[in-house]
Design a protein that fits this description.
Helix 1 (54-63) packs parallel to helix 2 (80-91) and helix 9 (281-293) runs parallel beside helix 11. The protein has 475 residues and is of the alpha/beta class. The radius of gyration is 22 Å and the shape is globular. Helices cover 27% and strands 25% of the residues. The strands form 7 sheets. A 4-stranded mixed sheet has the order 23-25-1-26. A 4-stranded mixed sheet has the order 2-15-17-16, covered by helices on one side. Uridine-diphosphate-2(N-acetylglucosaminyl) butyric acid is lined by residues 54-55, 58, 141, 166-174, 209, 211-214, 352-353, 375-376, 418-419, 446.
Length: 475
Amino acid sequence: MTHSLRTPDLMIPDRPDPAWLSSPGDAGGAAVDDVIRVRGGTRMTGTVHVVGAKNSALKLMAAALLAPGRSVITNVPRITDIAIMGEVLRRLGCGVRFDADDPVDPMVAYGGVPRSRSVTIDVPETPGIDADCDLVRRLRASICVLGPLLARRGTVRVAHPGGDAIGSRGLDMHIAGLTRMGAEISGERGCVVATAPHGLRGTEIVLDFPSVGATENLVMAAVLAQGTTVIDNAAREPEIVDICTMLQQMGALIDGAGTSTLTVVGVPGLHPVRHATVGDRIVAGTWAFGAAMTRGDVTVTGASPAFLDIALDKLVSAGALVETRRDAFRVRMVDRPRAVDVVTLPYPGFATDLLPMAIGLAAVSDGASLITENIFDGRFMFANEMMRLGADIQTDGHHAVVRGRQRLSGALVRATDIRAGAGLLIAGLCTEGVTEVSQVHHVDRGYPDFVADLRALGVEVERGGAADGGISLGR
Ligand code: EPU
């Protein structure tokens, strides 16, 4: 097995910590043309430990910008997106250092490298205001520096992150909310330029849709605004609660985290903190679906099953046995899964990020499933890849009808986004033969060392360069 150190897609100069390169999940640690091959027919069995949520840690890093001084965020996943976010902050003048988490997470025992790290962020008195770098376009989440920098500096320029393989992904709610708070916002050569010449002021904002990113940006802007901001129809995701908890520890006054109405009373300043990232419910859910799809028996630790209520209920309806504890759960599937319908919705609904896994499950279930996607207009784009594995899928707008088959067949497929890549690899375990997934740099963006986790669950899996022949599984 080889891990190429070529970095054709991501050149991040001046990294102070060369050890950061040592895992395929790290920026630059793997080539964009890496592939992963899995052999079908394996039941996933064993235990996996899940570390902090990508979609929380990225925003917690941006929230650190709100207070000068040293903040430390622990249980941060060792993935490419986090490395990019670290670089975004460095280019805004912050010192950013990644260290081993203390205590080191238990995955080190069987995976070789820890899945999580702590990140120390030294924020200057006057952070930069220009996040217009190539990195922002590569990491949509970096738009979340907009709120904190506008609050701290009164002016900011951030590249428009654009759409991606799951859909068009607008910014109108971010912009409308900040405008109501007194910001003047314009578009300029692919950038969002925001200024608040008279400072941000509290106001009432009703979001058209409970957007995760808009809620986060608006909360981060509101904590330092003058007066009280009420955000109605706010997102309720556990990652929103996590960022509100960190902000409260920094001295922010926020009420209603985890509900649809957030009330934020602005304060003149915040102080830095140490905060542990909430466990990744999407990674945990990926393994839960993997257990069900492969008729395996998987225990997942490190993430609360309470954050996966509906997803785990779906697995029970499909015939799985699910046992839950506070920060762990076990999913067992003995017989062929039964078809279940799934509708994605904002939290606490079924997470859109688990849609590829739901389609994978439907593809091998007994009966037909209706899968409805309500969050992203392009989420079904990966369905063609799933069909290459023999899945019977018909899409129409935001619906897909999936007629289950006893077995899929191994094929060469392409990861189109993070979750599609993970879903395809797990679907590959339900095939006869070998499945090769290319462009697995997408998977590295969200899953720390997916291959080691698969291997720990008994899967025959190899990773290598597409062209270098460095992997040994036969077809
Ligand atoms: N939207 C707008 N205008 C806006 C904001 C959002 O039209 O101003 C639309 C989007 O285009 C999308 C929908 O509203 O169709 C939902 O977007 P939302 O803002 O809720 O999502 P996000 O903040 O862009 C985060 C996660 C996604 C996850 C969604 C939904 C991060 C970095 N990303 O995206 O995660 O799917 O919430 O839960 O937090 C992933 O991890 O693979 C991923 C895509």
